[in-house]
Write a structure and sequence with these properties.
Layout (H helix, E strand, L loop, with lengths): L14 E8 L11 E8 L2 H13 L4 E4 L5 E3 L4 E7 L8 E6 L2 E7 L4 H10 L2 E2 L11 H6 L3 E2 L2 E2 L4 E7 L5 E5 L5 E2 L2 E2 L5 E11 L2 H18 L6 E4 L14 H7 L6 E2 L2 E3 L6 E4 L5 H19 L8 E3 L8
Parallel strand pairs: 2-5, 3-5, 4-20
Antiparallel strand pairs: 1-2, 6-7, 7-15, 8-15, 9-10, 11-12, 11-15, 13-14, 16-19, 17-18, 18-19
């Protein structure tokens, strides 16, 4: 390991530092290799110093949230991986503005817990994200969503940390959000504000239950998986085509390599067994992409993010 990854490189930063951290175990796939160093800053100031140091030293710096749509290669990842799990990165507060309640929440907060807190307060808007495992920051970065909407629908402002460790705030309209993607220029999301609408708490909770029931009937939620493997591609008429349907029609339900299998319940989910490796998952995804390209001419794009020391594996 390069000397620049040793713990003393970060020794004066107020953070917990782990060398050769088992990163794969922190993902929903529960497979994959290590990170050179895992860092858990204890304050915004510590995070700011960390970012500047990585930037000035040309050290790769990645942010891991819930690990829900992430596949870590068996050979691991280089550089620093940052986990915002200190309480200072999980707080939230409500500010009432007329008939709209503004929710200010830090990026490390759990999306599901945040949704339930808004439901208890009788606020609707974020409830459409029910059943999506993510941190607030991760959900915004990928513009998480589904059949009921996207997280950017209620986003008002976004505060980020630049590579130089400086805080900058954007209006949501200043950021380009697309289907399962965003064009946020800065490496770390610090916090966000959402505009929510007052409603009956019981009605909000019932809506959440309906969304969970809908997902449970269609998705293999009890299996080890990272959610949808591929984005729904655009059809010739500009509407989205179900990637799961394309994979199903190609006869790939149940297809497996090693310990990775295309779910028989929802073909856009790849499930893993205890013997699975990350390369098994990559091989299944590559086979799906090749088969769909050959049969339909459509190039499926991964929704699952791949981290690896090998740049080719991330493509």
């Amino acid at each position: 390991m390069s000397v620049r990854y040793q713990s003393d490189f970060f020794g004066d930063i107020d953070a917990d530092v782990t060398i050769d951290a088992h990163l794969g175990a922190m993902t929903y796939f529960t497979i994959g290799g290590t990170a050179d160093v895992l860092i858990k800053p204890r304050s915004i100031d510590a995070l700011s110093v960390l970012l500047r140091r990585c930037y000035n030293s040309n050290m790769p710096c990645r942010i891991i949230g819930k690990g829900a749509n992430l596949l870590v290669d068996d050979i691991g990842v280089d550089g620093a991986v940052v986990l915002l799990d200190h309480e200072c990165f999980k707080s939230l507060r409500f500010n009432r503005e007329g008939t709209i309640d503004a929710l200010h929440v830090m990026s490390g907060a759990d999306l599901s817990k945040t949704i339930m807190e808004t439901a208890r307060c009788g606020l609707e808007g974020l409830h459409t994200m029910a059943g999506i495992p993510a941190s607030i920051g991760g959900a915004i970065r990928m513009n998480a969503g589904g059949a009921y909407g996207s997280i950017s629908d209620t986003l008002s402002t976004l505060t980020c940390l630049t590579k130089a460790g400086e805080l900058v705030t954007y209006r949501a309209d200043d950021i380009e959000f697309g289907y399962r993607e965003s064009k946020i220029p800065d490496p770390i999301i610090d916090s966000a504000t959402f505009n929510l609408t007052p409603s009956d708490p019981i009605e909000v909770r019932n809506n959440i239950k309906e969304i969970f029931a809908w997902k449970k009937s269609r998705q293999p939620l009890s299996d080890t998986s990272a959610g949808c493997a591929f984005k729904n591609p655009l059809g010739e008429d500009g509407s989205r085509i179900s990637a799961g349907q394309l994979i199903d029609e190609a006869g790939l339900k149940g297809f497996s390599i090693g310990g990775a299998t295309v779910s028989s319940q929802h073909a856009n989910f790849i499930t893993t067994s205890a013997s699975a490796t990350s390369r098994d998952v990559l091989a299944v995804m590559n086979e799906i992409q090749q088969r769909i390209s050959e049969t339909t001419g459509i190039d499926l794009q991964r929704e699952v993010v791949v981290w690896s020391r090998d740049p080719e594996a991330c493509r």
